[in-house]
């Protein structure tokens, strides 16, 4: 199974996985409290921007990075900003307090998925307020 996914294009993989998620959601138990289909976040860590742009062109919008430096670089990349104007970045890694400002300044940051301490939450909140 895995080997066949590797040989497929980004667009083909995205279509296959999205279809599987939709099928699983449609088949969920009637007692399931979920009202909305789950959001698929494509983890783009260590992937070249060309793959992200291909997935974006195929209709995907949510991408996750778990390294601060990669998120900063990709979210500020001129080509990415031009070709992916509606991209939604998810920071999915552990953020050190001293890197909170860099994460919060990333264009199109949608969500920080993991907040591991009150100190980090306060720093992120303060940075968000400063950005307003």
Biggest β-sheet: strands ordered side by side in the sheet? 1-2-3-4
The mean pLDDT is 91
Morphology: globular
| Secondary-structure element series | HHEHEHHEHEH
Helicity range: 40-55%
Major β-sheet annotation: 4 strands, parallel
- Radius of gyration, taken over Cα atoms and rounded to an integer in Å: 17 Å
Overall SS class: alpha/beta
The tally of beta strands, per DSSP, is 4
Strand content: 5-15%
With helices defined by DSSP (H or I, 4 residues minimum), what is the helix count?
A: 7
The N- to C-terminal Cα distance equals 47 Å
Task: Provide an overview of this structure.
The protein has 132 residues and is of the alpha/beta class. The protein has helices at residues 2-7, 10-26, 49-57, 68-76, 78-83, 100-104, 118-131, and strands spanning 42-43, 62-65, 88-91, 109-112. Strands 1-2-3-4 form a 4-stranded parallel beta sheet. Helix 3 (49-57) links the parallel strand 1 (42-43) and strand 2 (62-65).
Properties at a glance:
132 residues, alpha/beta, four-stranded parallel β-sheet, 7 helices, globular
Q: What is the structure about, briefly put?
A:
The chain is an alpha/beta fold and 132 residues long.
Sequence-ordered SSE layout with sheet pairings:
Blueprint: H1 2-7, H2 10-26, E1 42-43, H3 49-57, E2 62-65, H4 68-76, H5 78-83, E3 88-91, H6 100-104, E4 109-112, H7 118-131
